[in-house]
Amino acid sequence: MVSSWVAPQFIKTTIARQLLTVIFAVSLSLAPRESFAEIHLRGEVGENVTVRCPVDRHKTLTFLYFQKGKEFVNGFHRLKNIQRKRWENTSVEEDDAAVQMCNLKASQSGEYQCYIQYKDETNVSDSVIHLSVTAKYSKPTVITLCHAKRCLLTCTSHGGYPRTKLTWNVIGNSSGLIWTDRKESEDSDPNTMLYNISSTVSFNCSYGEQMFIGCSVGDVTSEFLAVCVPKDRPHIRKLTICSIVLFIAIIVLFPVWKCVKNFFTGAAVKEII
Ligand SMILES: *[C@@H]1O[C@H](CO)[C@@H](O)[C@H](O)[C@H]1NC(C)=O
Ligand SMILES: *[C@@H]1O[C@H](CO)[C@@H](O)[C@H](O)[C@H]1NC(C)=O
Ligand SMILES: *[C@@H]1O[C@H](CO)[C@@H](O)[C@H](O)[C@H]1NC(C)=O
Ligand SMILES: *[C@@H]1O[C@H](CO)[C@@H](O)[C@H](O)[C@H]1NC(C)=O
Description:
Layout: H1 3-6, H2 14-30, E1 37-44, E2 49-52, E3 61-68, E4 71-77, E5 90-93, E6 98-101, E7 110-118, E8 124-134, E9 141-147, E10 150-160, E11 167-172, E12 178-188, E13 195-204, E14 211-217, E15 220-221, E16 225-227, H3 234-272
Parallel strand pairs: 1-8
Antiparallel strand pairs: 2-6, 3-4, 3-7, 5-6, 7-8, 9-10, 10-13, 11-14, 12-13, 14-15, 14-16
Bound molecules: 2-acetamido-2-deoxy-beta-D-glucopyranose (4 copies).
């Protein structure tokens, strides 16, 4: 039933297409045709979206077929029963010419068409709906692994759609940073199509400058981690030695001071007596 209206869209050969254009142009000039509309919609995985097919509210609809290419999604026909299987989690409101899609999946991204016909009219008008379903990536996390002067950082984030890349951010003096071996990886779940992404960088801390590194996906940023922290900074070593000397001095000098103090207070008491 729908295929007779949809068929022209799937004619592949150029000759047929050109022929179709001519026929189309002729038919356009002969019969009034509803203007073609293009609608862009966004949705989140797991959420709902309502697609309103553009219709003339003053006219009565005979049918509405909402399709994804050749695949029937949902719709109604006022004169006959639709035998085709409807997509799960979808429903149609005849009065509003609206199709509700619940619990969206990433795989439902794409181009949809509304084919409609009004009562007492033979022509069909169609429109294209671009639906983009996205999923938010988790807040990225960074782990570091340092050995000698070489650090390996891995940033990971899961459960997002569509595929994207992680970016690295550096706070501090990064002029001594030598980025090497950047590796990216991504895994997509075959059912949900959601991606897990990761990026690994290794770098050289020979310059001895401490810096803070984090990574981000879209506008979500990880915590920043300190890297290239000098383990044996000379001023820290000096400070440690000073503290130890002071500690020993206090331990040794305290009994001496107490003894001296006792001696004098003892003498003073004796004088009063
Ligand atoms: C999506 O639609 C379902 C079914 O109509 C409903 O139960 C659910 O609450 C809706 N979810 C949101 C986020 O609106
Ligand atoms: C950054 O580090 C480089 C090399 O280690 C050094 O020459 C430069 O002066 C530093 N800049 C700042 C602002 O600390
Ligand atoms: C993505 O990461 C989640 C959480 O770590 C994990 O449960 C899932 O199996 C991963 N999926 C793929 C395709 O690697
Ligand atoms: C790190 O950088 C220093 C100074 O440029 C260089 O001498 C050293 O070979 C580098 N080490 C590694 C592991 O790349």
